[in-house]
Amino acid sequence: MPELFAYTDGACSGNPGPGGWGAILIARDGDTVLKERELNGGAPQTTNNRMELMAAISALEALEKPATLTLVTDSSYVKDGITKWIYGWKSKGWKKKGGEIKNIDLWQRLDTARDRHNVTWEWVKGHAGHPENERADELARAGMAPFKG
Fold first, then answer.
1. Per residue in 16-53, pLDDT tens?
2. Is 137 part of the annotated catalytic residue set?
3. What pLDDT does residue 12 have?
4. Which of the residues in the chain have pLDDT under 70?
5. Does the annotation mark 42 as catalytic?
6. If I label 139, which of 18, 48, 75, 105 is the partner at 20 to 30 A Cα–Cα?
7. How many Å apart are CA 49 and CA 45, to the nearest integer?
8. Which letter does DSSP use for residue 12 in this model?
């Protein structure tokens, strides 16, 4: 049975500013890549955190059938939010002590996308030579390019 991986990244020129996201979906059998798909997009006025969230959402939404996969992100915001913080937010009716949840629209969308799958979340250090993370970063920057002046 092949293993499925999603590598995601977001980028922003200014924060807020023009931004982009990138994702790579890879099916592997051991070290052999069986199938690979690249995705990206962007927005004219956004934040880095929104683009990190959009990368993860887009990767999960691109899967046509429920799947078991490892999603690799360099965003501790995304990883901690979806594996730790979200449970408290949901138990309090999507509220948190001390104010509003930033990017609630995207957190809710990520929660829905995640619920269709069996996801293991992994964090990697960004810009540290991880090949798929570096490629996801390139895709994010390409997604941002049309929105830069």
1. 999 999 999 999 999 999 999 999 999 999 999 999 99
2. yes
3. 96
4. none
5. no
6. 105
7. 12
8. E
Per the residue annotation, which of 20, 42, 117, 137 is the catalytic one? 137
pLDDT at res. 85? 95
CB contact set of 30 (below 8 Å; sequence gap of 6+): none
Q: What is the DSSP string of 100-115?
A: PPTTHHHHHHHHHHHH
74 among known catalytic residues: yes
Give me the catalytic one of 20, 74, 81, 117. 74
Q: Spot the catalytic one: 22, 41, 52, 81.
A: 52
Phi, psi of 65 (to 5 degrees): -120, 155
Q: Count of CB atoms within 10 A of residue 145's CB? A: 14
Catalytic (active site) residue 52: yes
Q: Which residues of 99-118 are buried (b: 16+ CB within 10 A; e: fewer)?
A: eebebeebbebbbebbeebe
Is residue 73 within 8 A of residue 125, CB to CB? The reply is no
Q: What is the dihedral of CA 48, 63, 67, 114, to 10 degrees?
A: 40
